[in-house]
Structure formats: C-alpha cells, structure tokens
Write a structure and sequence with these properties.
The protein is of the alpha+beta class and 101 residues long. Helix content is 26%, strand content 42%. It has one domain: Nucleotidyltransferase, domain 5 (2-Layer Sandwich), CATH 3.30.420.10. The chain contains two helices and six strands.
C-alpha cells in the first residue's frame, strides 16, 4: 500500500509530513536566499517558508532553511517527517547531530 492511501476509510499517515528545502547564493560568498515547502502525505501544501539571508555561501543558506523548516514542523507538533533536499552535506550534518529541535 502506498504511503498516503487509505484503508477502510482510515488515514494511514496521520500527522506525517515531507519537508523539501533548498538554499542558494550568488557565488561562494554572495547574496543568499532560501525556501522550503511542507506537504502532507497527500501532497497538499501545509506551509511555505522563504526569505533572504544576506551574504553567505550556499551551504549556510541550505543549513538555515533546513533548520527553519524543522523548527516550524516542531511548532506544528508533527513527529513523522521526511526531509528532501539536494545537499547531502547539510542532511548529513543534521542526521549526525542532536540539535535539540
């Protein structure tokens, strides 16, 4: 059974979300921005976060967006979260540390 499907009218993925995040900068140190989309298990958008963070590198921009997205999910009291991003470095950092989110 696919995640997000229903069985006998019971939702099989209550309170689970997916966080897609990305960050970028103009050059190695340049103006940077970030964004993330949080979707429920049915693909519906729960929230969107985006912004500018001034001058930094793309790794810092990606790190900040992942952190902001995870904090928002914690505030919304979601416990089942999958994360998708294009920075293995940032995802590896977050998986390897206990940051008290």
């Amino acid at each position: 059974m696919d995640v997000g499907s229903s069985h006998f009218g019971v939702d099989v993925c209550p309170r689970s979300l997916k966080l897609n995040f990305d960050g970028s900068s103009e050059g190695n140190l340049g103006l940077a921005g970030f964004g993330c989309v949080v979707r429920d298990c049915h693909g519906s958008i729960v929230c969107v976060i985006a912004g500018s963070i001034g001058s930094c590198d793309s790794t810092k921009a990606e790190s900040m967006e992942l952190l902001m997205g995870l904090r928002e999910l914690k505030n919304l009291k979601f416990s089942k979260v999958s994360v998708e991003g294009d920075s293995l470095v940032v995802i590896g950092w977050e998986l390897g540390k206990s940051n008290g989110l």
